[in-house]
Inverse folding.
């Protein structure tokens, strides 16, 4: 690709689309939004095809010093590449999901989504500390509007909660960034990733970044905005929120907290483990008793993201690769599950689980897709969920057997609440006439479900496609973390040897 | 330093003085019929003055060459920076006025003349090199401002606002003057350079009292907590174009003056006053944010917002470094644009009969009835809250960057955490405009001048503003460095 600024183009296309959508009528706005996201997806594919696996760590770099104190610097490594791919893949699905369900203020809605896409790609592609912050923080504005304008009944409360929680987390991070840039004399992220901060200061910096990423992730005590925001957001809002926005937290950990503050990360790993273990168990149990489908999936997201944090702080290659795969898989699967909820919500306008039942009879094809995504969420081998969870828990096992034990209960509980949900919605008798009369999937819904289903299977059967681009970057990160690696808690020792051999040896002596 | 040279240096002041006197005569002979013509001439004069001061900033002038009348007056880069802002916002206050006053039949010829006189006083404040120049400039500005606040003679609120402003402003001037006399008594000089060198050793109690009184008097003028009480009443009661003038030009001149006094005259004793400023900064941020939450009138809300913003500017002052001063200037430029945009948008909020709509509740659903106005107002609100990618973020960014570089990490962390409180009421306005059902109160047509000004402010506040950061930072640093030459 030479010097062609493909990343800038990927930022520009949705931005231009967003401005155009503001002025357009409903149907035209939908078309423009779909076109813009599809163009960006094609650009994403081109990006992936041209990404030189095993080549330079940072590719497609662009750098222009147009601003004071920071520069417009873009560039991606394998980790960023996969997350950008996830974003551009989910966006057309989002637009499709709101094709008919959003009828009021369509132009503004599509504009908000396209703006969101620009900002998400920007977050993953930014190579300058402050540029990253601007993209990271700017996402608040469109998301606030999406929840507040097109959300459900309690949308005002949810939008405030989302905005203020994430803002408070982020501003503390900004102070840490200012300090780091002042100390290291640069705002270049790759340089900072190799800069060794004083371990004592790292503690504070780590906490400041943690304040932001833990809220975005979201981790256990500060996760409460997520169920509110999810339930109130429109379907496409939930898809993008679960699919990509939550990944910004994980991306933050893997890009900033771990490589920039390895000592502090090791120091705080027990805290992360504790919070993640609580999250896995508690939020799974909460998910088990939900009556609202979206809330259930929202809580399951918190549990899955806890497995991500477990794997990240395992400080080994399996854990890190596993976490990345869980993030990608969760992006696809939770997006697909919210889509499944959206499909029946559009027909019956309720998310109450008890209003449905026996959908396998009147919507068999829908039931098939829902089953696939349910299984992927549980982590059935052959689906994307399995690979990531297996790797990250395997990585954790190398650090702490107990944490791995508790983490694994999440999979069992996950199976419990997901299968329970599936049974109540799809199996059983048809309790309500209106639910029983719902028609099966339309062509538009097929077009959204099939790519998602194929991607889930692809990632489950041949995860190498997704691991290959990031292998080198994960290895580099692992090498960077090596000096702070925690010790293994299992007391491995060589056994006493086989009795027969022992007896023979003893016999030889005598 | 001969007289002719001094007279050349004060060319902008001479122009303003002569122009205001001539226009006053025109007003006296031809009455209110000529008010529009007088306004146009006044705007032209202000623009001309901007052209006169611009070279000093571009060339980064400083030192004895640009000190007129034995150092009582400076035409240096810092003064030029402040004057560009002052004259620019004064011109804006003139441009937005006719549409407002015409409808009330109150477009009188005194308005542009008073604005010119106030701008003259403000320019003197920014150029002051001596406590007496400072006081003359301040009073010239204040007297014109009191009259402007009460400009709608028939309106009770306007008269009340003028009276309140006068009584409290006179008290603050008295406090300031008392501080000036103490400082003079203990240092034996009124010139900033002289005071700076006289304060080099340990401070006597009397000097400390003097510094505190001077700072208290100036804190009143910039509406910093705990001297902020007058702001909401005056901002609400004064006619909106006048409020715009107070929120922009007055703010710049008072802050420029505060910077001159603190960093030039008292600069060698920064340790003595920085704690006071830190307190005022944090208190302003918190009180401004909390006070705004309960407001139902949008002008009162903007008043609290201005208190809140002054707090952020003061963080730049508290650290007393050249970078901090430059950050204050950058913040001011951005704040002026946001404030101007905000008040112009408020001026455009009119009901069917053209009456001003000031109740926040009446903005409900504005995004559906007046989408572009709502979009501009939402941008202003997010920008005031300091959410990137809007340009308001940059002002906060440079201030906190300077604070962190000077080692005030805790101050920066507390300040920025408190800014989240402020974000609450800004996004409340967005919520009312975008999430609520339309009240459909705002129906009146807008003046072309208002639309044009709002568009300029909106473009400046959009992410495009970041393209100016290099240029803006360069100018601010040139201007700010002037204040630290003595030290």
């Amino acid at each position: 690709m030479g010097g062609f600024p493909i990343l800038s183009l990927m930022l520009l296309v949705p931005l231009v689309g967003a401005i155009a959508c503001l002025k357009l009528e409903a149907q035209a706005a939908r078309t423009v939004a779909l076109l813009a996201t599809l163009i960006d997806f094609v650009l994403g594919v081109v990006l992936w095809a041209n990404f030189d696996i095993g080549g330079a760590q940072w590719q497609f770099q662009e750098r222009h010093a147009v601003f004071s104190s920071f520069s417009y610097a873009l560039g991606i490594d394998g980790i960023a590449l996969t997350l950008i791919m996830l974003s551009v893949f989910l966006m057309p699905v989002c637009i499709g999901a709101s094709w008919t369900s959003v009828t009021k203020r369509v132009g503004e809605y599509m504009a908000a989504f396209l703006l969101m896409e620009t900002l998400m790609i920007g977050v993953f592609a930014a190579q300058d500390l402050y540029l990253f912050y601007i993209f990271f923080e700017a996402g608040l504005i469109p998301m606030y509007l999406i929840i507040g304008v097109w959300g459900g009944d309690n949308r005002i409360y949810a939008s405030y909660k989302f905005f203020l929680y994430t803002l408070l987390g982020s501003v503390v991070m900004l102070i840490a960034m200012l300090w780091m840039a002042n100390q290291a004399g640069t705002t270049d992220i790759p340089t900072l990733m190799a800069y060794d901060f004083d371990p004592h200061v790292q503690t504070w910096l780590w906490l400041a970044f943690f304040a932001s990423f833990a809220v975005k992730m979201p981790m256990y005590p500060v996760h409460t905005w997520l169920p509110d925001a999810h339930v109130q957001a429109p379907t496409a809002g939930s898809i993008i929120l679960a699919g990509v926005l939550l990944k910004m937290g994980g991306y933050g950990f893997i890009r900033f907290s771990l490589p920039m503050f390895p000592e502090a990360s090791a120091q705080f790993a027990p805290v992360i483990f504790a919070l993640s273990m609580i999250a896995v168990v508690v939020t799974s149990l909460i998910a088990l008793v939900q009556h609202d489908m979206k809330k259930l999936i929202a809580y399951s997201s918190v549990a899955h993201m806890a497995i991500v944090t477990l794997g990240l702080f395992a400080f080994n290659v399996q854990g890190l690769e596993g976490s990345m795969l869980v993030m990608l898989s969760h992006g696809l699967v939770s997006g697909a599950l919210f889509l499944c909820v959206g499909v029946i919500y559009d027909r019956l306008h309720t998310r109450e689980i008890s209003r449905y039942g026996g959908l396998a009879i009147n919507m068999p094809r829908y039931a098939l897709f829902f089953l696939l995504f349910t299984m992927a969420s549980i982590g059935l081998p052959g689906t994307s969920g399995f690979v990531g969870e297996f790797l990250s828990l395997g990585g954790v096992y190398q650090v702490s057997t107990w944490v791995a034990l508790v983490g694994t209960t999440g999979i069992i509980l996950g199976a419990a609440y997901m299968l329970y949900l599936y049974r109540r919605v799809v199996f059983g008798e048809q309790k309500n006439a209106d639910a029983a009369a719902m028609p099966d999937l339309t062509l538009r819904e097929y077009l959204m479900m099939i790519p998602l289903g194929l991607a889930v299977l692809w990632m489950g059967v041949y995860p190498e496609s997704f691991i290959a681009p990031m292998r080198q970057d994960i290895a580099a990160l692992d090498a960077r973390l090596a000096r702070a690696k925690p010790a293994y808690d299992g007391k491995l020792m060589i056994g006493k040897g086989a009795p027969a051999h022992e007896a023979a040896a003893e016999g030889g002596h005598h | 330093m001969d007289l002719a040279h001094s007279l050349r240096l004060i060319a902008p002041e001479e122009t303003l003085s002569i122009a205001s006197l001539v226009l006053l005569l025109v007003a006296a002979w031809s009455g209110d019929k000529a008010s529009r013509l007088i306004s146009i001439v006044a705007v032209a004069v202000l623009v001309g003055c901007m052209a006169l001061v611009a070279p000093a900033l571009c060339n980064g002038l400083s030192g004895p060459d640009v000190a007129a009348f034995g150092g009582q007056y400076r035409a240096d880069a810092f003064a030029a920076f402040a004057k560009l802002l002052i004259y620019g916002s004064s011109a804006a206050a003139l441009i937005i006025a006719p549409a407002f006053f015409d409808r009330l039949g109150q477009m009188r010829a005194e308005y542009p003349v008073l604005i010119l006189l106030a701008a003259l006083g403000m320019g003197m404040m920014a150029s002051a090199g001596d406590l007496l120049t400072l006081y003359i400039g301040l009073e010239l500005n204040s007297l014109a401002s009191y009259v402007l606040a009460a400009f709608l003679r028939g309106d009770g609120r306007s008269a009340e606002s003028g009276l309140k402003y006068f009584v409290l402003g006179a008290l603050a001037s008295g406090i300031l003057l008392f501080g000036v006399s103490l400082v003079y008594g203990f240092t034996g000089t009124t010139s900033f350079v002289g005071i700076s060198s006289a304060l080099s050793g340990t401070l006597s109690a009397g000097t400390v009292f003097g510094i505190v009184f001077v700072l208290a008097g100036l804190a009143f003028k910039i509406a910093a907590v705990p001297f902020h009480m007058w702001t909401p009443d005056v901002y609400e009661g004064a006619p909106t174009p006048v409020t715009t003038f107070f929120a922009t030009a007055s703010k710049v001149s008072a802050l420029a003056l505060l910077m001159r006094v603190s960093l030039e005259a008292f600069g060698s004793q920064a340790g003595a006053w920085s704690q006071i400023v830190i307190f005022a900064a944090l208190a302003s941020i918190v009180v401004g944010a909390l006070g705004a939450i309960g407001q139902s009138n949008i002008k009162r809300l903007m008043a609290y917002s201005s208190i809140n913003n002054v707090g952020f500017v003061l963080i730049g002052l508290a650290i007393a470094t050249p970078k901090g001063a430059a950050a204050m200037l950058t913040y001011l430029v951005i704040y002026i644009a946001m404030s101007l945009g905000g008040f112009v948008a408020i001026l455009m909020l009119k009901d069917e009969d053209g009456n001003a709509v000031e109740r926040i509740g009446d903005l409900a659903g504005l995004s559906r009835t007046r989408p572009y106005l709502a979009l501009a107002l939402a941008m202003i609100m997010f920008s005031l809250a300091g959410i990137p990618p809007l340009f308001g973020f940059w002002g906060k960014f440079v201030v906190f960057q300077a604070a962190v570089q000077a080692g005030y990490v805790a101050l920066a962390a507390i300040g920025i955490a408190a800014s989240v409180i402020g974000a609450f009421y800004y996004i409340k306005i967005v919520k009312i405009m975008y999430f609520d059902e339309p009240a459909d109160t705002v129906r009146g047509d807008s003046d072309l001048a208002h639309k044009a000004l709002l568009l300029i402010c909106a473009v400046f506040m959009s992410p495009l503003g970041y393209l100016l950061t290099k240029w803006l930072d360069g100018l601010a640093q040139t201007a700010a460095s002037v204040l630290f030459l003595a030290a």
Q: What stands out?
A: Residues 3-484 of chain B form one domain. The beta strands of chain B are 67-68, 73-74. The longest strand of chain B covers residues 67-68.
